[in-house]
Give the backbone structure.
Amino acid sequence: MHRRVQYPDTIEPLVQFIEQTPPAEIIDRTLEKLRSGTPTKTMLTASALAVVRSADLPPGHHGGPLHPLAGLHAITNLVNRLEGEDRFMPILQHVALSNKHINDPVTSPFSLLEFAPLDPSGAQVSRTADLAADGSGEEAATTEGIEAAKEAFLKACSRGEALKADHIFLWLWDHVPAIEAFDLLMSVALPKNALDDHYFLFPGYLWRALETFGTEHLKVLFRPAVRYVARFPAQRLVPEADALIEEHGLLNRILRQRTGEDETRKIGELGEAIRAVKGYPDIPKMIAQALADGLSLEGAGEALSIGAAGLFLRSLTGNPMDVHLHTSANLRRYLIRLDGFSMKNKLLTLLLWHTGPEVKSTQYRMEAELQPDATAVAALPHRSQEELLEAITQSIYTQPPTDWSTVTNLGMMRAVPEVKETVNLAQQYVNLRYDPQVLINRLAQIVCHDNFTEMHAFKHHQAVIEEFHNTREPWRWMHLVCGCQAAAISFGKNMSVYEDALELMHAA
């Protein structure tokens, strides 16, 4: 019989703590451990491993290990920006979310089982029998065997055989470089973006988490991502994107990879054009033409980021989880810079941004004109940096509460007019070129309140910061305004974890 996955003795007791602690006790007992010296990274690692082992993937994308794993990159970086016991708050949010899904009847009881990988012939092998002398496994597999395993994985995905795909991928991790396996996984995930944005976001953001987590737990952390990407049969082709690649010969020419100051004008023009579109299907046509005209891949990614920020500001959505315009663009910029990521996948990464349902739906809920309203911003009274920061904060904290009895479809929620007040104040702040880090620090404190969005608010906050630092003047400042808009939309929806933790901290 198969047994459930076991972790090293150094982390197993902490994983069991998160799995076995009742939800009513998880916040105070986790806080006790953090205060007694458990490192934040160790606690976050245990939280991720616990939700992988003891929570199943739901039919949709809410629940189970998806959002706790996709949020690891953002949570880790946020912890490093906070000071004192404020650093515990994102960890408490993550642990509470993992514990919630471990105890949710939609995703539990569940136990992730250990089993032997499937080799290219379809036979099960021991985890060590086929490894090379150095333990890497790469020398023991022939080129033909590796290609056969890849084809077997793609065939399993085409049939929606998620468990078989899981078996095969365990073999691939042992026999090809990790980036090669990840590239294969994303070749399935990218086209499926049209079915659900999370087919792309889940494995992509999980890969980013390895930057800080290392690869010690790579295979087990990626098991739910592999099963998620492999489930439900779907076509591996995207005719519109493939047609653009073919029309412009993008795979048959040498494309410039890195950007430079010489591209500033072209990047700005393309970004502004994307920002102003009426129909999202025009966006990949613009990007493909720009690449054919010589714009670098990085430049195209930066232009997409500028356009995505502008479209987010035009969006009328009041759903606090509708942040994928921004987070998806952020992840795509990372991937097109990733060494070892194939050119075909880099092109699809740029050309498929608009296809995700949660991105695509926003084009039907947009302001006709560019936002924020420059006239309304100009009419605001002048404030010092400290006064304006306080005004932004209070405008977020005093957003009208949501009457949930009137909400029948979260995806159709519209932002209340008061959100525009926050946006206008934020635009005034950046117009005056006040200190961006002061605003970032305040947004970091505000985002810690959220436990409604299953890490969406945290991911968007991290995306805003990265895009601000990685986008050139004058467009970089748009991202900070987006951060304020998202904070105003999400604040107050559900803050129970924050409120409970704050009470415990003050009671000490």
